[in-house]
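Lab channel / #folding
Pinned by the channel admin:
"Please post every new chain as: sequence first, then the structure tokens as a reply. Keep commentary short and put observations after the output so the thread stays searchable."

First post following the new format, from NK:
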Amino acid sequence: MNFVLTSASVRREIEYACPDNIALRMDASIPQGSGPFPAAIIVHGGGWVRGDKEFDVEPLFAPLSEAGFAWFSINYRLTTDWAHFGEAVADVESAIRFVKAHAGEYRVDAGRIGLLGESAGGQLAGMAALRGAPGTNVRGVVLLYAPTDLVTLAKNSEYIPEPFRGTVMSLPFTDMIVDRLAKLSPALNVKAGMPPFLLIHGTEDPLVPYEQSLSFREKARAVGADCDLYPVPGAGHGLRWWERNGAIARPYKREIVRWLTQRLETPVQVAR
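Reply from TO:
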């Protein structure tokens, strides 16, 4: 897939990390001008087992570029063995460090970086922000229909593939697996001092229930965190499905730009 943004310089296939000899790459879009620009790091979804940095999140590119943001859309290690589930959180952390380390090269303000994750990518982005590893602090996090309580999903939702869901409920591994899922669940790891979060979720999501975002907001606010929830009435799961209906697609994009602009302290411009 090729995407063209005439108001920005696009660089593709930038290697940002190489864990286990696996080259991880990102695409970058940098506004015209001297900068430094605020930046959004985008993490695609795909149930942790598939997905791509271009196709899955392409609807987000133009609104961010038109609002004057640099953006970096990343690929990460997909899960082929559930024993390694969750390792991709470290890939998101590596992407944050890479953007910060190369801020001058990409004309980015290292102090004004946000994360934007959709679906499974939202879980990864949320955990990267909440773990607070050195060099990974961000100013704001946007999660679109993200699974934030993996324990509940593993037991009840078709979002988790059936073989793994069955494993969660089988002995003698239940306690061990549930504990691991809890440690990878953003809603179960909220804490005071966490960065601001914006949750965007379709109210009719059949895969990740809207209630997941409601619960996350409640838990985040209970620890004094800044957390907003933007419901998308009648919407299901996935940006590509939302794009079929302009009445759904346009408002959530404006909300992302408005919220990121406010949290990253940049001038507001009109998004598509």
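NK: Strands lie at 8-17, 24-31, 37-43, 70-74, 108-118, 140-144, 197-202, 227-232.
TO: also worth noting, The longest strand covers residues 108-118.
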